[in-house]
Write a structure and sequence with these properties.
heterodimer; A: 113 residues; mainly beta; 6-stranded mixed beta sheet; 4-stranded antiparallel beta sheet; 12 strands; 0% helix; globular; B: 115 residues; 7-stranded mixed beta sheet
Chain lengths: 113, 115
C-alpha cells in the first residue's frame, strides 16, 4: 500500500525567509503527487501537482516542488515566505488518475514577522 | 469559482440524532466522489468512495451502517451520520475527481459538532 510521510510536524520561519517542506512517499511505481494547503477551518486548495515530465513543478502563490525519484521525495519550496502562507500543508499521492488520495500527516507552518 | 460545494458548512446536533451532509459537483458530472474525515490537528482520512449507481465502498474500520452514503445523481453525493455521538464530531470533506490526468477538487468541508 502506498504511504506518505511528512517528517516535519511544525515548521517556523521568518517572513521573507526561504521554505522547504519535506515529503517522502512509498510506492512501487511513480504515483501522482500533490501538495495542498489548508487554512484553519477551511477546505483544501491545490498548490501544485506532478504527473509526469519535468520534475520541477511550478504552482500557485510562488510555490514549487521537485520530484526526485531516487529519493522518493516531492519537497515543496518557496524562496520567500509571506505571512499569509501560514497554514497547514499536506502532501498527497494518488496511485492512478481519479483514484483515492493518500495524505501525509501534514506540516503546520508558522510565519514570524 | 467553486467547483465543489458542501452543505451545511457547519452543524451542531444533539447526540442520537442523524445529520445529512451534501456534496455537489457544480461544474462537471462525477461517477465517483470521495468522503474524508479530519480530526483536529490531524490529516485527512478516507472514509468511503461514493459510486453513482452502486453501493459505496467503505474503508476498513468505517461503519457502513453508521455512515450512510448515497450517490443520488452524477452531481450529488450525501453522507448521513446516523445516531451521531460526540466522537463523530469532526471535519468532513468531500472530493470529486474530474477527468483523466486531472486532480481532485475538494469541497469546503462541513464541521460537525455533536453535543
Amino acid at each position: 500500500a502506498q504511504s506518505v510521510t511528512q517528517p516535519d510536524i511544525h515548521i517556523t520561519v521568518s517572513e521573507g525567509a526561504s521554505l522547504e517542506l519535506r515529503c517522502n512517499y512509498s510506492y512501487g511505481a511513480t504515483p501522482y503527487l500533490f501538495w495542498y494547503v489548508q487554512s484553519p477551518g477551511q477546505g483544501l486548495q491545490l498548490l501544485l501537482k506532478y504527473f509526469s515530465g519535468d520534475t520541477l513543478v511550478q504552482g500557485i502563490k510562488g510555490f514549487e516542488a521537485e520530484f526526485k525519484r531516487s529519493q522518493s521525495s516531492f519537497n515543496l519550496r518557496k524562496p520567500s515566505v509571506h505571512w499569509s502562507d501560514a497554514a497547514e500543508y499536506f502532501c498527497a499521492v494518488q496511485e492512478t488518475s481519479g483514484s483515492r488520495l493518500t495524505f501525509g500527516e501534514g506540516t503546520q507552518l508558522t510565519v514570524n514577522p | 469559482g467553486a467547483v465543489v460545494s458542501q452543505h451545511p458548512s457547519r452543524v451542531i446536533c444533539k447526540s442520537g440524532t442523524s445529520v445529512k451532509i451534501e456534496c455537489r459537483s457544480l461544474d462537471f458530472q462525477a461517477t465517483t466522489m470521495f468522503w474524508y474525515r479530519q480530526f483536529p490537528k490531524q490529516s485527512l482520512m478516507l472514509m468511503a468512495t461514493s459510486n453513482e449507481g452502486s453501493k459505496a465502498t467503505y474503508e476498513q474500520g468505517v461503519e457502513k451502517d453508521k455512515f450512510l452514503i448515497n450517490h443520488a445523481s452524477l452531481t450529488l453525493s450525501t453522507l448521513t451520520v446516523t445516531s451521531a455521538h460526540p466522537e463523530d464530531s469532526s471535519f468532513y470533506i468531500c472530493s470529486v475527481p474530474r477527468m483523466e490526468g486531472d486532480t481532485q477538487y475538494f469541497g469546503p468541508g462541513t464541521r460537525l459538532t455533536v453535543l
